Amino acid sequence: MKARTSSKRSLAIVLFCVISIGLFITVFRLSPFKQSGETSRRARRPEVPSEPKRAEVTSTKKAVAESDRRFSTAELSSYLQAKGHSAGAYAAVYDLTTDETLLKEALQRHPEASALLARGAWLLSDKALAGECAKRLIATQPDSSIGWYLSGMLALNASGDFSEAENFLVKGLERKPPVLFDEENATERREALESLGFSTQEARVKGLFGQIANAGPLKLDEAWTKIGKSNNQSLIEKGIGMTQHFMLDPRSPSGFQLAAMNSQIAMIRLLPGDQEFGDTGKTLAERKVDLEQRRKTLAKAIIFFNRSYTEGRMSPSQQVSWADDVLLRGDTAALMKVFEQQN
């Protein structure tokens, strides 16, 4: 670990990548479709989870960041060994390397570890193994929505079976929102980076993120785009509910928040504007206006943070304070706190 870019240059590139991904997702929105005769135009309520009272906390999350340097499994093998090849260490190393061979090895050693099963179901290119991971995730965490949602996405990708996908989404909506931020996992990543010679300060900031950070939201956006293009109003309504579920956790990574916002706006455009948005008392048209404003605020906060960091307006102690605040309350809330203090 002799040659590496400075932490300041690293995070600048990281945040640039993040903003690019957000813009990519925004530009390639779902195209409006002509509703077929079988698609009812009657105003029905999408089955969406209730909006939390503190919308400002859940509305944004600092856009997902990743290290600008991809680490190799060989570099981190000593760390894995020192940690006894634990499930947590495997998850951290995978996040920093996205090595599928490593993830498959981890799943063999820890077949019931939910963190590994979620990564396998979400990101493995081997769809048969990904499907098996989703099934095991449901078996180990039946009360969590994540396994059901991943199964629904896999059904869409594998066969385009809308009815099967919708059944999975309905079951997901009946369960707890996905928990996408794992403090223990962020700590493991920090320790892995320290083992490579990063300073404690650099590791605290960079350890919050990993290569997996960009892959997850893009995979979600793929699935939500397919839902939107299904020309199936009932499935689209469940898709809106799913995107809402992903925004309910105030600690979920902002990349997921951003992808959920963009996809929800795109799907709302495909339904009648006077249709009610769940039991919120708002119409879909009103919901879209709210979401667009929240997305604009998030974009401003990202740009502000990026400039503050790259132009040296954040001291090393402020950077560490921000990293600690992320672990305390989630990175969007931490980002928005800095943004609000300075504006």
Q: Describe the global form.
A: flat
| Strand elements, count | 0
- Count of domain modules: 1
Quaternary structure state of the chains depicted: single chain
Question: What structural category do the secondary elements indicate?
Answer: mainly alpha
Distance between the termini: 39 Å
Q: Spans of 5+ residues with little confidence (pLDDT < 50)? A: 1-5, 11-16, 23-43, 52-68
Instruction: Please trace the helix and strand order, writing H or E for each element.
Output: HHHHHHHHHHHHHHHHH
Average of the residue pLDDT scores: 78
Largest sheet report: none
* Number of helices, counting only DSSP H or I runs of 4 residues or more: 17
Helix content: 55-70%
The Cα radius of gyration reads 20 Å
Strand content range: under 5%
Secondary structure blueprint with pairings:
Elements: H1 7-27, H2 55-58, H3 77-82, H4 87-97, H5 100-109, H6 114-123, H7 127-140, H8 146-159, H9 162-173, H10 183-195, H11 200-206, H12 212-228, H13 233-248, H14 254-268, H15 284-310, H16 316-329, H17 331-342
